[in-house]
């Protein structure tokens, strides 16, 4: 693959070293040259055109930029792209499959867990990580797990319902053990 | 927010990292979890010439207990590792209580215990627990390792005792001399808020009698407040309401809060007293139940 | 056989949202997601100080940074007559500062570069020399003759006072107070807050010199107003301006004003002949863009001993920042503050208001409310709470005595508004039962014996939505009506466009439901588009809960025009006269023979293939809707809290919200709006405010200091509904977007006060942070969030 450097920028000038990194993004290995200061969120958005990951607050509070980093939720504004070399990153674009949505995505639609949609990708990825660790969370456990992601529209109540909806669906979809 | 330029290195060993710090001559900084450092770099409050990323150094993510009960926490142990430990609540209740109150759940997946200690934020949670527990930090430089008592490690707001060419590689918590009891209470206005005031208490109980008593405070001074001396009034005593009140008063007197938009200095001091009382009263109740 | 309206996604269906399909896949298109070929990036250098004369700006080092294309200063803007721009309140605002900076965060210079990182690097190299002046951070200082005049750029501005304004009947009110048995007095401050949508503001300006066309992607809740303003300011003909407001990551009023960043990006694109993207950072958003509130009140209620209110007085003192940039109808200087007490039957009322300039960010936007209505209703409900206490009367009983009764509508308020419908007492009953009102006092007493402090607070209000009717409501002269355009395609599918602009409210879903209701075309067959001024019909945009009352009405009206034409086509197809045609949902039939009919889809096909002689082909139309009156939803909220006496921390035990917003188009979305609004109300009551130190430094310039609640703190809400259709709205709807933010704060505050007022305290200003509540408990005295303000 050709270097995506020009799309990614920053325009470094001749004296700025770049590093070649390979990151597995949504199951696909991507090799790009990055300046060390480039934030992961900017690589994803500008370099790889995965604009579902949003940049909100700059101070690691809002969680709009949440992705899964080796399966764990991470605020992608608080990691340099160069640090992701050799790691796996999952963004909202990788949540569903060609044939369908992830149950968390379905849950957010079904229970009206979003309004403006800006916090939604981060909320859904944090929810997915929770359900992988805890398939049957209580309402309080959901609220606790999502307390690193801010939403201004919904008041969270429907987000909690969305996650519980997804949890139930995922449990029902599990093949029953004999 | 766009960080300024810096050079980036990702050494594969501690030795390599130390060499990079040495070469950096004071302008290089260690990057571990980065959850405090990266926002500061983004806001351009900090602009190190070089970041030495230690996340790729193998063998630093351990949390082990020596046969004598000494707890060792490696430099790459994340907050979340402590939060999710199933044994910590029994062995180190003070740490367990603080684990879920550090920042927010997403930050906790990445930020490190040792990194927080190095950050030396006066409002930091872990420094308070470590001082209460009499913890130490192992640092390594070109001349080898040394151990620093946490009380001497945090030297001021956002300032630690590391030399420019040293790395903090391990936190050490000495074994309890008795049954470990304790907790951490924090007044925060919402998840992820900095502490208005917080209190870490760690007691080693011999039956109903206090063996060792440790206490430290966050958010109520220019740096983490060491209240170990203050709470030592409890040593050799039982947790009667009178003794608890005396200890709480002593600890509150050790606080050095400033009036700001989070509250007056009197209020913060009052919160310290209230939290010390609550923690000690809870311990007294659970001791009674156990007896 | 009539269609099942719920099945086709018509009125009343909790239809799942159409827009979610892209948002849950990360395929929304927000401004920052738009990439244009050759696009440059702009960063703004902001003032570090609140008030200072600019001695010099040295940009030479910034120009030297590789990748920098342009560095703009106020001087360069002034050379093009763009250093100042008009505000939405007939004032002026600096685009880039020339003479002075007037608040911390004001725009001082801009760098345009190949890359945002480079632009930021170059910004850091600009050297600005300031000569600092004393900062004025509240209205008391603004009145101090020894303090500087902030707006020394203006002629005829010898003081820092912006306006004095009054409404109501002073004499009659004075008489009411003279006749009163009891007068209740309370002083309050509604602190400055920031709407803080998750997405910050931004724009991409793309000027094409070859065609003369300017296209601007912009975070705007009102793109058509922007187009008009840009035409006036930038002197580009209006037909050559295209404003595109793509998906918005929330707005809440913050994206109504026109910000300097937009204007600078436009000039930068004209100068560089390249698209220029400006994406504000969060600090820029919090310290420089439209805030809400910041009003002080001195309020009085005059009562008879039996609980009847005879009159009320309010004096408000408002802090508008350095430029009077309130987004509000022209006629009213302090928005619709005089809608206060509209739900109560009060014979006499008088309001006086005075506004001041300070060295703080401008704005005064309607933060999730209808032009200062949030302040009006908060003040009202805190005054009512204090008045009931002063009278020694039960809070619910006092309200029920004074609320407008069902048989009094239409009701003319003392300030002249006409409320038209409601079942206020029924809402009270529903809420009282749900919260367990009758047993609460006993519960509270018993709890107090165990050392626990419980409190119950009520907030009731009706608010004016849907500004406006064009006789009374305009913004910078543009009348406040709205529009819709509907095209039915040959196969019976449709596209609907309106002049509103959704930002999370779900217009793409609900507008289609109105059309489905009116025409019987399944909602899934209707696509809704908004936000592109080249395609959408003119409209005033979405804020002040006006979309459903105004644009939503236009949607119904345009569908009815379509149905009228389709009826003629049906008559032609059925070979009967139009008078013999009957309508049922989705279908025309011959009177007396229901079997013989044609569907709306049949008519659509005929409109393009089998048009009656003499009829204009096609099936499309538009409608401009000028509402005859405002709409008046009602809310009755009940909140139960427990206060920790040792720390001042309080928790919500239960919250009951009863809303009557008239007919509900989509109940699921209505409930979502209420819960979101209640959360912002909770935020303001508990933690969310912006304050300043003595030097004018903003405390609250990022989310570490400006606290927004998370899922953990936010309480759960129990929602109830009462439906009283609006008599003049085509579908009986009243609007709901902001009721909860407006009525909510007083419910929380009244609850906490109820828990602690046995100590003698009458008021704690928002936010009710633990330290303030604790202080009130300890001292029994009021806790004011800000220094007391001089009466002026």
Outline the fold blueprint.
The complex is a heterotrimer of chains A (178), B (291) and C (792).
Chain A: H1 5-8, E1 19-25, E2 28-34, H2 40-47, E3 66-69, E4 72-75, E5 88-90, H3 103-110, H4 120-133, H5 139-145, H6 157-173
Parallel strand pairs in A: 1-5
Antiparallel strand pairs in A: 1-2, 3-4, 3-5
Helix pairs in contact in A: 3-6
Chain B: E1 7-9, H1 14-24, E2 28-31, H2 37-42, E3 50-53, E4 63-65, E5 71-74, H3 79-84, H4 88-91, H5 93-99, H6 105-108, H7 113-119, H8 125-132, E6 136-141, E7 144-149, H9 150-153, E8 154-156, E9 159-160, E10 167-173, E11 179-187, E12 197-206, E13 209-218, E14 225-226, H10 228-231, H11 241-254, H12 265-290
Parallel strand pairs in B: 1-3, 2-3
Antiparallel strand pairs in B: 4-5, 5-10, 6-7, 6-10, 8-9, 11-12, 12-13, 13-14
Helix pairs in contact in B: 5-8, 11-12
Chain C: H1 20-23, E1 40-46, E2 52-58, H2 60-64, E3 68-73, H3 74-79, E4 84-86, E5 92-94, E6 100-101, E7 107-113, H4 116-123, E8 127-132, H5 139-143, E9 161-168, H6 170-179, E10 182-190, E11 202-208, E12 213-218, H7 223-234, E13 241-244, H8 260-272, E14 276-279, H9 282-288, E15 295-303, E16 309-319, E17 333-336, E18 348-356, H10 373-391, H11 395-402, E19 411-412, E20 418-419, H12 424-435, H13 437-449, E21 453-462, E22 474-475, E23 478-479, E24 482-488, E25 494-498, H14 507-519, E26 526-530, H15 547-574, E27 581-584, E28 587-590, E29 593-599, H16 600-609, E30 620-625, E31 634-643, E32 650-660, H17 667-686, E33 691-692, E34 698-699, E35 718-721, H18 739-756, H19 770-779
Parallel strand pairs in C: 1-14, 12-13, 16-18, 25-26, 32-35
Antiparallel strand pairs in C: 1-7, 2-6, 2-8, 3-7, 4-5, 9-18, 10-15, 11-12, 11-14, 15-16, 19-20, 21-31, 22-23, 24-25, 24-30, 27-28, 28-29, 31-32, 33-34
Helix pairs in contact in C: 10-18, 14-15, 15-16, 17-18
């Amino acid at each position: 693959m050709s270097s995506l450097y020009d799309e990614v920028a920053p325009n470094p000038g001749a004296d700025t070293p770049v590093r070649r990194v390979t990151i597995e993004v949504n199951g696909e290995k991507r090799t790009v040259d990055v300046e060390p200061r480039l934030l992961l969120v900017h690589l994803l958005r500008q370099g790889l055109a995965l604009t579902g990951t949003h940049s909100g607050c700059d101070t690691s509070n809002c969680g709009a930029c949440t992705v899964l980093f080796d399966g764990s939720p991470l605020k992608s504004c608080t990691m340099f792209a160069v640090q992701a070399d050799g790691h796996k990153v999952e963004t909202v674009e990788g949540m569903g499959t060609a044939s369908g949505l992830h149950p968390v995505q379905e849950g957010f639609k079904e229970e009206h867990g979003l309004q403006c949609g800006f916090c939604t990708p981060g909320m859904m990825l944090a929810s997915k990580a929770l359900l992988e660790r805890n398939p049957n969370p209580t309402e309080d456990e959901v609220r606790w797990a999502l307390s690193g992601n801010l939403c201004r529209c919904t008041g969270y109540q429907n987000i909690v319902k969305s996650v519980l909806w997804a949890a139930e669906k995922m449990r029902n979809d599990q093949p029953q053990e004999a | 927010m766009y960080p300024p330029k810096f050079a980036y290195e990702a050494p594969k060993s501690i030795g390599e990292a130390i060499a990079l710090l040495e070469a950096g001559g004071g302008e290089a900084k260690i990057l571990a979890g980065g959850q405090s450092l990266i926002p500061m770099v983004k806001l351009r409050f900090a602009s190190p010439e070089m970041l030495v990323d230690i996340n790729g150094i193998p063998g630093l993510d351990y949390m082990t207990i020596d046969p004598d009960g000494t707890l060792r926490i490696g430099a790459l142990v994340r907050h979340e590792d402590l939060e999710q430990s199933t044994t910590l609540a029994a062995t180190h209740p003070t740490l367990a209580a603080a684990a879920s109150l550090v920042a927010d759940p997403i930050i906790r997946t990445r930020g490190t215990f040792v990194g927080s200690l190095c950050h030396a934020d006066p409002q930091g949670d872990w420094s308070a627990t470590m001082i209460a527990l009499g913890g130490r930090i192992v640092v390594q430089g070109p001349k080898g390792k040394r151990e620093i008592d946490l009380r001497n490690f945090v030297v001021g707001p956002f300032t630690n005792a590391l030399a420019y060419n040293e790395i903090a590689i391990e936190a050490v918590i000495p074994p309890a001399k008795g049954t470990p009891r304790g907790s951490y209470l924090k007044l925060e206005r919402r998840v992820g808020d900095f502490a208005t005031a917080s209190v870490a208490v760690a007691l080693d109980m011999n039956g109903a009698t206090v063996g060792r008593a440790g206490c430290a405070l966050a958010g109520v001074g220019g740096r983490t407040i060491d209240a170990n001396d203050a709470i030592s009034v409890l040593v050799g005593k039982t947790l009667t309401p009178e003794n608890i009140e005396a200890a709480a008063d002593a600890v509150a007197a050790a606080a050095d809060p400033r009036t700001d938009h989070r509250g007056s200095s009197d209020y913060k001091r009052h919160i310290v007293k209230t939290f010390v009382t609550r923690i000690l009263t809870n311990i007294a109740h659970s001791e009674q139940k156990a007896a | 056989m009539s269609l099942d309206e719920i099945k086709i996604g018509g009125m009343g269906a909790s239809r799942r949202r159409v827009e979610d399909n892209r948002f849950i896949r990360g395929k929304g298109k927000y401004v920052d997601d738009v990439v244009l070929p050759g696009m440059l990036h702009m960063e703004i250098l902001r003032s570090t100080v609140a008030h200072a004369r600019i001695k010099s700006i040295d940009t030479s080092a910034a120009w030297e940074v590789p990748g920098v294309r342009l560095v703009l200063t106020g001087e360069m803007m002034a050379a093009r007559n763009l250093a100042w721009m008009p505000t939405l309140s007939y004032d002026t605002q600096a685009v880039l500062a020339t003479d002075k900076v007037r608040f911390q965060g004001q725009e001082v210079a801009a760098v345009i570069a190949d890359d945002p990182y480079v632009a930021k690097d170059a910004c850091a190299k600009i050297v600005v020399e300031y000569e600092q002046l004393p900062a004025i951070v509240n209205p008391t200082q603004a009145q101090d003759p020894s303090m500087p005049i902030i707006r020394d750029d203006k002629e005829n501005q010898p003081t820092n006072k912006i306006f004095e304004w009054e409404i109501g009947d002073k004499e009659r009110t004075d008489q009411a107070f003279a006749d009163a048995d009891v007068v209740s007095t309370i002083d309050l401050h509604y602190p400055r807050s920031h709407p803080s949508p998750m997405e910050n503001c931004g724009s991409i300006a793309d000027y094409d010199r070859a065609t003369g066309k300017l296209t601007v992607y912009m975070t705007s809740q009102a793109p058509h107003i922007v187009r008009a303003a840009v035409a006036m300011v930038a002197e580009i003909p209006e037909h050559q301006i295209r404003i595109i407001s793509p998906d918005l990551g929330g707005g809440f009023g913050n994206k109504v004003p026109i910000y300097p960043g937009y204007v600078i990006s436009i000039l930068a694109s004209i100068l560089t002949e390249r698209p220029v993207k400006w994406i504000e950072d969060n600090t820029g958003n919090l310290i420089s863009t439209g805030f809400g509130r910041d009003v002080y009140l001195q309020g009085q209620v005059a009562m008879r001993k039996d609980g009847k209110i005879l009159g009320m007085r309010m004096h408000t003192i408002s802090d508008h920042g350095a430029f009077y940039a309130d987004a509000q109808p022209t006629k009213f200087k302090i928005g619709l503050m005089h809608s206060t007490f509209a739900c109560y039957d009060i014979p006499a009322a008088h309001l006086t208001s005075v506004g001041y300039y300070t060295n703080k960010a401008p704005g005064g936007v309607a933060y999730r409310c209808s032009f200062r209505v949030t302040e009006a209703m908060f003040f009202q409900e805190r005054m009512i709470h204090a008045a009931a206490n002063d009278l020694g009367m039960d809070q619910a009983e006092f309200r029920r005595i004074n609320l407008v009764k069902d048989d009094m509508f239409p009701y003319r308020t003392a300030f002249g508004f006409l409320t038209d419908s409601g079942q206020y007492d029924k809402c009270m009953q529903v809420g009282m039962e749900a919260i367990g009102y009758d047993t609460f006092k006993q519960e509270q007493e018993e709890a107090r014996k165990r050392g626990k402090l419980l409190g119950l607070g009520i907030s009731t209000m009706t608010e004016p939505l849907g500004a406006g009717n064009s006789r009374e409501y305009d913004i910078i002269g543009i009348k406040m009506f709205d529009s819709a355009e509907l095209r039915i395609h040959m196969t019976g599918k449709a596209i609907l466009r309106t002049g509103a602009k959704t930002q999370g409210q779900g217009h793409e879903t609900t507008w289609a439901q109105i059309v489905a209701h009116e025409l019987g075309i399944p909602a899934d067959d209707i696509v809704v588009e908004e936000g592109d001024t080249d395609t959408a019909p003119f409209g005033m945009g979405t804020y002040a809960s006006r979309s459903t009352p105004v644009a939503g009405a236009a949607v119904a009206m345009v569908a009815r025009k379509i149905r009228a034409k389709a009826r003629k086509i049906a008559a032609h197809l059925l070979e009967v006269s139009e008078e013999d045609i009957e309508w049922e949902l989705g279908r025309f039939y011959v009177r007396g023979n229901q079997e013989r009919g044609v569907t709306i889809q049949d008519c659509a096909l005929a409109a393009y293939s089998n048009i009656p002689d003499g009829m204009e082909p096609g099936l499309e139309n538009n409608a401009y809707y000028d509402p005859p009156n405002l709409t008046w939803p009602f809310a009755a909220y009940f909140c139960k809290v427990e206060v920790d006496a040792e720390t001042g921390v309080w928790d919500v035990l239960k919250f009951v919200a009863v809303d009557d917003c008239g007919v509900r188009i989509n109940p699921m979305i209505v409930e979502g709006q209420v819960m979101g609004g209640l959360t912002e109300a909770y935020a303001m009551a508990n933690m969310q405010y912006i304050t300043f130190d003595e030097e004018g430094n903003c405390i609250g310039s990022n989310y570490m200091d400006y606290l927004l609640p998370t899922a953990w703190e936010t309480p759960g809400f129990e929602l109830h509904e009462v439906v009283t259709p609006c008599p003049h709205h085509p579908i009986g709807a009243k609007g709901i977007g902001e009721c909860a933010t407006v009525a909510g704060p007083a419910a929380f505050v009244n609850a906490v006060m109820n828990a602690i007022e046995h100590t003698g305290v009458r008021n704690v200003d928002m936010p009710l942070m633990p330290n303030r509540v604790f202080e009130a408990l300890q001292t029994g005295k009021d806790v004011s969030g800000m220094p007391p303000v001089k009466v002026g």
